[in-house]
Structure formats: C-alpha cells, structure tokens
C-alpha cells in the first residue's frame, strides 16, 4: 500500500475524492490536512470529519492548517459549494472525534518519520508552501506530489485563465512549482472537465439505498444547480477525485512534462503558464496531464464505492 497525506478543502468534489481514497485498498491514508479554500478552513475541517464519518473512517486524523492564503485575503467558493462548503446540507457537528491543529507540522513530522509518503493536494497549495518554507529538506522527502490545479489549454473557472486552487493562493502555487524538487503532477481543468457526474449517475445512486450514495446525492444537489445556472450543463464536473484516481492508476490519464510557472500579479493572476516552447530554458518541473479516460475513471469510482451494486 502507498502512504498518502491528502491535503484538501472539502468542498463537494473533495468529499468525493476522500470517499474514493477511503475505498481504495492501494492507499494508506495517514491523515487529512485541511486548507482554507472552498470555504474557511474551520468549516472545511468540520466537513472532513463528516465525510470520514459517512465512510466509517474516523480513525483517520484530521489536521487543520492554513486558514488564509500566504500573502492575500481569503477567497472562498460559496457560490459553487454552498454556504457550508458541502452543498448547504445541514449536518450535525461530529462530537466524538475532533480535528487537531498543526497540519504543516503533521506533514513535516510524517515525512521525517516515514519513507515513501506522497501528498495528494486537492485545494489551494498554502499548507504545502508553508511546509516548504519551514523545512524544505523534510518536505523533499516526499515521494511525489499530485495536485489538482491549473489549466493548460482549457479555460479557467475563476477568470478566463485561472483555475480556483491556483487563483485562491497563487503565491503558494508559484512557490511549490518553482521550489519543490520532487516529481509534481498537475491534474488540471484540461482533464478534470472531462469527468462529469451526470443526472443518470445521480438517479442510479438514489436507487442504491446506501448511506454513502445518499450523501453524494445530498451534497451534489446544490453543485448540479450551480452548473445548470452558470453553464446550462447537465451534470457536474468532479475535479478532485481524478487526482486520487490518477495516483492509484496512472493509465487513466496521460500528459507531458513542461516547465510550469504561476502568474502572481495582474489580470492573469492564478494562471498556470506552461512553457510549451521551452522559451525559459528551464528544466521541466511538472507532468501536465492533458488526456483522460473518463469512462475508466467513472467505472473506478462507481465500482469502488458501490461494489455490491455492480452487475
Ligand atoms: C478546484 O477548486 C475547488 O472548487 C474544487 O474543490 C477543486 O479542487 C477546481 O478548480
Ligand atoms: Ca478542492
């Protein structure tokens, strides 16, 4: 089994990512580290506990990290993820287990104590950048970083050119891409936009009569409406679980390595700049995924979460 820390900002699609990870025997989840993003960090941490409760995995520790971006004011995505970050479903507070503080220390201490740990980052990169600033040599002990963020040929979802995780903390994204000397994979909008949870899937989940399926139906209601109102699309893009799926089975996506930088000032702030032509004459720092086998992903997601409903 491969040891992972999942750095996240749950978040509706973060929830689906955590659920997939919980049902993947290839992964040993050492902890969830929480960053502010889709909603403030405190609420993200509460949401993480809920998700783990639904999956009966409250044994996985949750650590709250950065409650604001490195240098800028916080931006959240309430209009996409709801006032509580999980589609506005009113969940009861989990009292039996609580989250802890100190996500950055948890990441660094884990990397110092354990070998072969990878980080799957599906929120803004603030915690990872803080870990890099605090102890680069400890962070460099990580196996690899797979991150959901950025957009290469695809357009942005926060500005015409910027994807949310890079846009919410561009300084952190810029620092991680330029300073972390470990393999980085960018699972950006180019591939995640292809992964859509359609109303047919939602209908199927409704019929399963299973708590995890009901949870997905509940939290995606708001997200589906958002997609319909914004783009007149049926179904919702579920970005984050693709990063988990790719880590488990890299044959699901393919791409190419490039030098990637992030714009930290001006109108294009948060844009991922992929140096296709090698203009900067810099070593590639990132594998940029551009192709995805969306059906293979959906099959993986459904069969792992609901094995008893597969024919
Ligand atoms: C990313 O931004 C967040 O809203 C999602 O959780 C995902 O991590 C997509 O741009
Ligand atoms: Ca996220």
From TrEMBL:
It comes from Eubacterium callanderi. GO terms for biological process: purine nucleoside catabolic process. Residues 4-299 form the Inosine/uridine-preferring nucleoside hydrolase domain. Keywords: Glycosidase, Hydrolase. It comes from the Bacteria. This is Nucleoside hydrolase. GO terms for cellular component: cytosol. GO terms for molecular function: purine nucleosidase activity.
